[in-house]
Amino acid sequence: MKIKICSTLSLILGFSVAASPASSGAAESRSASESEASRLAPGEKEVAPQKEAITKASREESNPEVERNVRLYFQDVERVIKEHAQSFRPEDRPVLAIYGEKIVPYVESYLTNSESRVRMEALGLLAKAGGERAAVIVGKCLSDPHEQVQSTAVQALSRTFRPADVKAVWEPLRPQLLRYAQGASSRSGHPHVAVFLLERIGGSSVIPELKALQKVPEKAGRAFNVNIFNRGEACRVALARLGDQDAAREVRKLLKSNEPHLIVEGIKDASELGRAFAADVLDLLEDKRIVPDLESSGSNLRYRVCEWAAIYLPTIGHFQFTFDESENSAEEASVEINGVLSKILVHKQAYTAEWVESVKQRARWELQAQ
Known about the structure:
Layout: H1 8-13, H2 22-31, H3 64-83, H4 95-99, H5 104-107, H6 116-129, H7 132-140, H8 147-159, H9 163-168, H10 170-183, H11 191-202, H12 207-214, H13 231-241, H14 245-255, H15 260-270, H16 278-282, H17 292-295, H18 305-317, E1 330-337, E2 340-347, H19 353-368
Antiparallel strand pairs: 1-2
Helix pairs in contact: 6-7, 6-8, 7-10, 8-11, 10-11, 11-13, 12-13, 13-14, 14-15, 15-18, 18-19
């Protein structure tokens, strides 16, 4: 699952303060490398950096020009937060577009700012700048006192940084990810993102740690969520993908459970494990039992085991099966969500006996054709 890390101010104030991608900034910096340094005359107002104002000094480790413009950037950020202003635009302070990774050492200091929204903005800049040094710095934010900063950091490491950058600094990041995965709440945090990153970068070397994490009890109040993996579920899936047979047997045990909601949990796991579980899920297309634990979440259009199986089976088996998405295929339906009756648009062919049967026939044909 890929996401785009947006700036804190975008989330809070409804407008973007994120700069352009760093990749274009590197080229622009090289093309402007012959420009002269811009210096302020006495009493002259500081202005935003311009592409033509890049200096030879901007390539050096210690760069007053970059430091000054990063400082101006965060002054504007703090002003927007303090005044609830909406006049700040990315092009006013294009530090990332112009300087790229050179901003990293100067942005780092803002991760200790007392305002969590400033720290979030700094995280966003570091993630977009990329590079090994930024990855190490962002890794330290996994222990930030604010849960949203932690979540932003782990998602940036997983989805914004290049895997090569994360792998290059794997040794210091590994214990930080493990601590985050163990301590983060599955209800409001993202321990599953840390687990899957550990799996992806660490491979079989993290199997012992994942088995230990799997035993960490979930915090109270975490209900089953068919759309998000909790820590234990993520560990089970990661271990199964790494070839751990005990984890694979656990998934099959769920699929054969007498409890409908546990079966759906197994179906969700199987959706991440591929065609090896297609035959197990195919059998569930005959199961007409209601899954009461999921009805209250607004899932009453697909509340039987057979319907959950039909939803995920094309993904599990990599089967070519699509809905008719024409206007004539949709209709309005009433759905109870959190005790409130709401009207939503659904496909007429979905969640019906005919639809389940068509998925069953297609799945059988695909499996026989292997």
